[in-house]
Specification:
seven-stranded mixed β-sheet; binds ligand MGD; Barwin-like endoglucanases; Dimethylsulfoxide Reductase, domain 2; 5 domains; oxidoreductase; alpha/beta; 856 residues; Rossmann fold; binds molybdenum atom
């Protein structure tokens, strides 16, 4: 698995998830055949079932009773066909996408400011900037390749400001980290606008010639954030820190403000984005090298989905329902009678409608709403009630497929062809290199087959993705005449072979000689009717859910370095679970002490809608009173570790994006009587139950972290846990220790380790290795009972996933003199792969050096 060195976005660099993709291939766990009501059926039968359900719903309840929930992980071609089928031929406007949870606030803000959903800059700008502001972005973990570009472009005088309530791996790059009170970003950026005016940093000519709304915006900003002292207090920051940020911003012409989910996923998400954009417009820092506001997109094809019109409030090809003439134009192009009368329901509203019984057929493609939507407990109940739930996925068991009436096996990333668009408007080809697993088919094929069965064969008669792409490109240019910036009509006549060899290309690509544009608005001309950008007055709007006596902690949620979303792919590579192998709660040390939760113990986080159980990580980088939980775990991997059980479905009034970064809850110690580690050879039936469990699939076995609230009579129960009588048993009742292993013809079948103190549980790696041994020798058998390896070194918690280097190894090397990231890299190779562990390596070096200094 290697990167493509000629790709302009990554230059061949991969993150650890990308580098591990090879390990995620294979048919194990894949959904390989269509299923209707649990029974395997043929494709024609499955297509009939889907078409029948849709037809019946339309006839009885009208087209709006059919809904599609799409995803930024579909290819543009899949997305285009879904949108066309739904809005043009079924006639339902109820088509939304998981990008609603991801990018919709940025989209709404772009439209307000620029007159279109247009990202002005390109990745190079992140390198050219003399001041790089990263707000609500943990790029070191969530955009690791881009982060490496930002890091590599460091030079004397280049400054980085990170704005995030938590200290994260990204803060490592920061000259200044503003650990602001969550949700106060609009205040900070309103205050910045006021400061920029007072310090004479406004580009008056640019504002006069190219913007409108400056006076009203400034008036609102002054009302909301009158003084530096006021801002510092409201954002819970030191006055000097705020001033340093403002001063740097006023001084540096080349400023990029990159923002992601800490900004978007908020009840004030759109306003937060506009507050940022306002400062860039006021200083004329847009459309210039190294100067722009930059929305960091999340999913591989979030941008492509926005191009085709996958969001419920858009129609197609950057035309909205209320764009004059758009509905007729799109109907003309698609050759359908008329398109749906939209806008449709946005994701959270859509699932509310499902809950109310208004949606009779829900087709979910390439997303896992039972895990990723807020109030996931309620979402699950809604899915259960919906008469027909159709799920297209690659994986047999996800929290969402478990509610499906019809399951459609989708071809996975290596098995399908198409295009995706990244954050800098760059379209790249994704090329197939594997045969399709089982009966799996590409999503566009499935959607077209259903369209055909509904009587629209002529309009969905695609020979392949190239055909669909040409149509998509043609629509973007159809009756456009410069009215829509999203125009790739220059690609509408690509031959199949030109499509196959398409090089990464930034849009717009108009007809004629191909001069694609790396930056938009370079002439100060925007996509509004009068060509002027809008500064948008922004009031203060704080998170709706605030802590109280019953739920005193603020809950923040987000990503970890080595997992992708709901883990359907990344958890298939066991090494990606080595960095964080369980759901966890990051807690400030003082909170932990006050609440009596212990490091490495378990804790319950209880919210008003549900609860989350995970391992306690003491983290001084948290603000006091705030905890952080990862979004990745779900019922396939743990009992009660779904972050969205804790976040409410409160949304931004303009974008409909849920406030996923701000819940509230109560943290308590989970009363464990015992902690355990169980490893069982793969695919063995499971007869045990534990109060707490978290699964970590390994190569030759599955492994679980376990804990119980009540004592277990282990000798009496052990057979159920090990799937048979163990040959090796050791018990020390006084210590609360129990160990047992079951062998079959000399090879290890299952092993269980129980301790009172979780810190005493052995490292899992050598235990897992024992499953690959042909015949366990005497020494290994003894070691199993001693819970200690024979000769393999205990490397400690994994830090570098690329080269499998652990914390203990690193600390030993530092002690022996490798006291820099470079030296560690030379000795152990850690940090020399994707580089995303470098912040942690730096931390370990600093920590060790500090310890040495203390002892001196
Ligand atoms: N490893 C990994 N990478 C990913 C993904 C993944 O699942 N795993 N998913 C991809 C996707 S789809 C997306 S959308 C991106 C998301 O990428 P990011 O947005 O960078 O990731 P998050 O961890 O969701 O959140 C970013 C930060 O916002 C901070 N934050 C919380 N509240 C506030 C606030 O009020 N103000 C500010 N300024 N910050 C706040 C959080 O503390 C967190 O550190 O990542 C993409 N990359
Ligand atoms: N509390 C909280 N909630 C959040 C967030 C947060 O930060 N905090 N982040 C939000 C964000 S930004 C996002 S993007 C969402 C992500 O949430 P989801 O979109 O729900 O997460 P994924 O795990 O990516 O789901 C993708 C599904 O599609 C399947 N799949 C993969 N490839 C294909 C394909 O080609 N075709 C088909 N048909 N299926 C495929 C996968 O197996 C998987 O089941 O979560 C959101 N929810
Ligand atoms: Mo996302």
């Amino acid at each position: 698995m290697a990167g493509d060195e000629s790709h302009p976005a990554n230059g061949g660099r991969l993150c650890v998830k990308g580098a591990s993709l090879g390990e995620t291939l294979g048919d194990d766990g894949r959904l390989l055949t269509p299923k209707v009501a649990g029974a395997t059926v043929t494709w024609p039968e499955a297509i009939d079932s889907v078409a029948d359900a849709i037809r019946m719903a339309v006839e009885t309840h009208g087209p709006s009773s059919v809904a599609f929930y799409l995803s930024g992980q579909l290819l543009t071609e899949d997305y285009y066909v879904a949108n066309k089928l739904a809005k043009g031929f079924i006639g339902t406007p109820n088509v939304d996408t998981n990008s609603r949870l991801c990018m919709s606030s940025a989209v709404a803000a772009h439209k307000r400011a620029f007159g279109g959903d247009l990202v002005p800059g390109c990745y190079e700008d992140l390198e050219l900037a003399d001041l790089l502001v990263l707000t609500g972005s943990n790029a070191a973990w969530a955009h690791p390749v881009l982060y490496q570009r930002m890091k590599a472009s460091a030079r004397p005088g280049r400054k980085v400001v990170v704005i995030d309530p938590r200290r994260t791996a990204t803060s490592d790059l920061a000259d200044l980290h503003l650990a602001l009170k969550p949700g106060t970003d609009t205040l900070l950026f309103n205050g910045l606008l006021v400061w920029l005016v007072a310090s004479g940093a406004i580009d008056e000519a640019f504002v006069a010639d190219h913007c409108s709304g400056f006076e009203e915006t400034l008036a609102e900003a002054t009302a909301a954030a009158p003084t530096l002292e006021f801002v510092a207090e409201a954002c819970d920051l030191a006055r000097d820190e705020v001033e340093a940020f403002y001063r740097w911003f006023a001084e540096e012409e080349r400023t990029v403000t990159a923002f992601s989910q800490g900004v978007n996923q908020s009840v004030a998400g759109t306003d937060k984005c506009n507050a940022i954009i306002n400062c860039h417009l006021a200083t004329g820092r847009i459309g210039k090298p190294g100067a722009c506001p930059f929305s960091l997109t999340g999913q591989p094809n979030a941008m492509g989905g926005r191009e085709v019109g996958g969001l419920a409030n858009t129609l197609a090809a950057h035309m909205d329902y209320d764009t004059p003439g758009a509905k007729e134009r799109v109907a003309r192009f698609w050759q359908c009678d008329e398109v749906a009368d939209g806008p449709g329901l946005k994701a959270v509203e859509l699932f509310d409608a499902v809950e109310r019984g208004e949606i009779k057929v829900l087709w979910v493609l390439a997303t896992n709403p039972a895990v990723s939507l807020p109030e996931s407990g309620r979402v699950r109940r809604a899915l259960e009630q919906c008469p027909t739930v159709i799920v297209s996925d690659c994986i047999r068991h996800t929290d969402t497929t478990d509610y499906a009436n019809i399951l459609l096996p989708a071809a996975g990333w290596g098995e399908k062809d198409g295009t995706v668009t990244n954050s800098e408007r760059r379209i790249s080809r994704q090329r197939r290199f594997l045969p399709q697993a089982g009966e799996a088919k590409p999503d566009w094929w499935i959607l077209s087959a259903v369209a055909g069965r509904l009587g629209h064969r002529a309009c969905f008669d695609y020979s392949g993705p190239a055909d669909i792409f040409r149509e998509h490109a043609a629509l973007s240019g159809y009756e456009n005449d410069g009215s829509r910036t999203f125009d790739i009509s220059g690609l509408a006549n690509l031959s199949d072979s030109a499509y196959n060899s398409l090089q990464p290309t930034q849009w717009p690509v108009r007809e004629g000689p191909h001069n694609t544009t790396s930056r938009l608005f370079t002439d100060g001309c925007f996509a509004t009717t009068d060509g002027r950008a809008r500064l948008v007055p922004v009031k203060t709007r704080l998170p709706e859910v605030q802590p109280d006596g019953k739920f005193p902690m603020i809950i923040n949620t987000g990503r970890i370095r080595d997992q992708w979303h709901t883990m359907t792919r990344t958890a298939r590579a066991s090494r990606l679970l080595a960095h964080r192998s369980e759901p966890f709660v990051d807690v400030h040390p003082r909170d932990a002490e006050a609440l009596g939760v212990e490091a490495n113990g378990l804790a319950t986080l209880e919210g008003d809608q549900g609860q989350f159980v995970g391992r306690v990580h003491i983290n001084p980088g948290q603000r006091q009173g705030e905890v952080f939980v990862p979004i990745h775990w779900n019922r396939q991997f743990t009992g009660e570790g779904v972050a969205t059980a804790l976040t409410r479905s409160i949304t931004d009034p303009l974008s409909g994006q849920p406030e996923a970064k701000h819940g509230r809850g109560r943290l308590t110690r989970w009363p464990a009587r015992w902690h355990g580690r169980l490893l069982v050879r793969k695919n063995r039936p499971r007869r045990w139950r534990a109060d707490y469990w978290a699964m970590q699939p390994m190569d030759a076995c599955d492994s679980w972290w376990l804990a119980g609230r009540t004592n277990v009579d282990w000798p009496a129960m052990v057979q159920e846990w090990l799937g048979g009588q163990p040959q090796l048993v050791m018990q020390d009742q006084r210590q609360g220790r129990f160990r047992a292993a079951r062998l079959s013809h000399g090879t290890l079948e299952a092993v269980l380790m129980v301790e009172r103190d979780p810190a005493l549980l052995p490292a899992v790696d050598w235990l897992a290795d024992c499953f690959t041994m042909e015949e366990l020798d005497e020494a290994t058998r003894r070691c199993l009972l001693a819970a200690r390896s024979v000769d393999t070194e205990d490397i400690g918690a994994l830090v570098c996933s690329c080269y499998q280097v652990g914390e203990k190894q690193i600390c030993r090397a530092i002690e022996e003199g490798a006291n820099s990231v470079e030296l560690l890299g030379e000795q152990l190779q850690c940090g020399t792969g994707c580089g995303s562990c470098i912040p942690e390596l730096t931390g370990l070096v600093e920590q060790q050096v500090a310890e040495v200094n203390c002892s001196v």
